């Protein structure tokens, strides 16, 4: 194996690589040098200031790059690679930009932002300090979280422990998320979306065939189109439109107002406690707070909903008022219990750190 080193004088070294026929491995060291090791020829290998440029490498490539973690003036190395035919393994780099990767991608302890595009196999990420942008790959998993924002699109399966900022998902089949510190936006989810906790607002659109489970949402929750919706604690307002298929069960605890949009011929029973008024298109269920117990069609699906404000139901046909249920005198105690539970679980999730399965 031949080795060549390049001295680095600044604090932002960079490696730019195009066309590698083998595997790419990047390892950190505490020298102000970039080392290039390979068994085969490299058509272009040159340095321009603190950037090392490589083009057309015929075999596996090992890079050792500067990663000096000091309080004042740390040095980390940006990696840009395009057209790697096999696997990429990077540890301890700064920003990472990868495009057109023929195998797997493994990233660990990345101190900057990550951008991934067109990865043929699996991307496995561990501890990303900055933002993450990823598109076009069969599977992406991120352990120990993403510190900044994340934009993910055209990925068949997504598994992420935590996102510190906002998370945007699009064109995904299955997404399993532990915690989102900011907002969660999802569009065109095909099968399932599960998220344990969202600190801000959440908007779900164009997911007519998907099963949605958002356990806790600190702000507003909007779901425009879903096959089914499981349970959610919602700190703000709720707007939900779903098919509510027969035998399904959905449960919501809503701090603000709730607007529920039903299919044209709904087959649903609604059991609710409301702090304000509750009504449908053609009927008023209660004024000034109370219990709601109505059915649409045969009532084969169930929606249980506790609302601190008003409840408005749109569509679904003509409801049947079933009466009975929990007395109004119990509403205050029930909503107080829900509020205390909501506060405890969010405090635990966001101040002690998310542990998979702990708050499910």
Description:
By secondary structure, the protein is mostly beta strands. The chain is built from one helix and 31 strands. The protein has one helix spanning 331-351, and strands at residues 2-7, 14-20, 24-29, 33-38, 42-48, 51-57, 61-68, 75-76, 78-84, 88-91, 96-101, 105-110, 114-119, 122-128, 132-146, 150-163, 167-180, 184-198, 202-217, 221-229, 231-234, 238-241, 249-254, 258-261, 268-274, 278-279, 284-286, 290-296, 301-307, 311-314, 320-321. The chain has a 31-stranded mixed sheet that branches. β26 and β27 (284-286) form a beta hairpin. The longest helix has 21 residues, at 331-351. Residues 324-329 and 350-360 have low confidence and may be disordered.
List keywords for this structure.
360 residues, mainly beta, 31-stranded mixed beta sheet, 61% strand, disordered C terminus
Summarize the structure.
By secondary structure, this protein is mainly β.
Write the layout of secondary structure elements.
Layout: E1 2-7, E2 14-20, E3 24-29, E4 33-38, E5 42-48, E6 51-57, E7 61-68, E8 75-76, E9 78-84, E10 88-91, E11 96-101, E12 105-110, E13 114-119, E14 122-128, E15 132-146, E16 150-163, E17 167-180, E18 184-198, E19 202-217, E20 221-229, E21 231-234, E22 238-241, E23 249-254, E24 258-261, E25 268-274, E26 278-279, E27 284-286, E28 290-296, E29 301-307, E30 311-314, E31 320-321, H1 331-351
Parallel strand pairs: 2-6, 2-9, 3-7, 3-10, 9-11, 10-12, 11-13, 12-14, 13-15, 14-15, 15-16, 16-17, 17-18, 18-19, 19-20, 19-21, 20-22, 21-23, 22-24, 23-29, 24-30, 25-29, 26-30
Antiparallel strand pairs: 1-4, 4-7, 5-6, 7-8, 25-28, 26-27, 28-31
């Amino acid at each position: 194996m031949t080795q060549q080193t390049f001295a680095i004088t600044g604090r932002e070294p960079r490696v730019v690589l195009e066309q590698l026929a083998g595997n790419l491995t990047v390892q950190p060291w505490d020298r102000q040098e970039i080392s290039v090791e390979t068994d085969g020829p490299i058509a272009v290998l040159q340095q321009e200031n603190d950037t090392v440029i490589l083009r057309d490498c015929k075999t596996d490539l090992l890079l050792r790059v500067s990663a000096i973690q000091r309080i004042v003036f740390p040095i980390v190395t940006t990696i840009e690679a395009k057209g790697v035919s096999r696997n990429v393994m990077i540890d301890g780099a700064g920003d990472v930009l990868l495009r057109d990767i023929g195998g797997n991608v493994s990233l660990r302890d990345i101190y900057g932002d990550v951008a991934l595009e067109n990865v043929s196999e699996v991307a496995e990420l561990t501890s990303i300090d900055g933002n993450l942008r990823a598109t076009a790959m069969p599977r992406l998993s991120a352990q120990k979280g993403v510190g900044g924002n994340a934009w993910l699109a055209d990925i068949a399966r997504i598994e992420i422990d935590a996102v510190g900022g906002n998370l945007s998902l699009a064109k995904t089949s299955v997404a399993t998320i532990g915690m989102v510190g900011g907002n969660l936006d999802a569009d065109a989810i095909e099968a399932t979306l599960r998220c344990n906790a969202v600190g801000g607002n959440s908007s779900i659109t164009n997911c007519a065939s998907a099963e949605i489970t958002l356990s806790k949402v600190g702000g507003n929750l909007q779901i425009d189109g879903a096959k089914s919706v499981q349970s959610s604690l919602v700190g703000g307002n709720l707007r939900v439109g779903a098919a509510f298929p027969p035998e399904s069960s959905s449960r919501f605890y809503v701090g603000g107002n709730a607007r529920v949009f039903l299919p044209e011929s709904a087959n649903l029973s609604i059991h609710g406690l409301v702090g304000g008024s509750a009504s449908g298109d053609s009927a008023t269920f209660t004024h000034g707070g109370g219990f709601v117990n109505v059915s649409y069609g045969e009532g084969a699906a169930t929606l249980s909903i506790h609302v601190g404000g008003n409840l408005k139901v749109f569509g679904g046909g003509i409801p049947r008022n079933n009466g009975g249920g929990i007395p109004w005198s119990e509403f205050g105690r029930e909503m107080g219990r829900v509020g205390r539970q909501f506060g405890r679980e969010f405090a635990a999730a966001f101040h002690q750190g998310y542990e998979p399965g702990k708050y499910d």
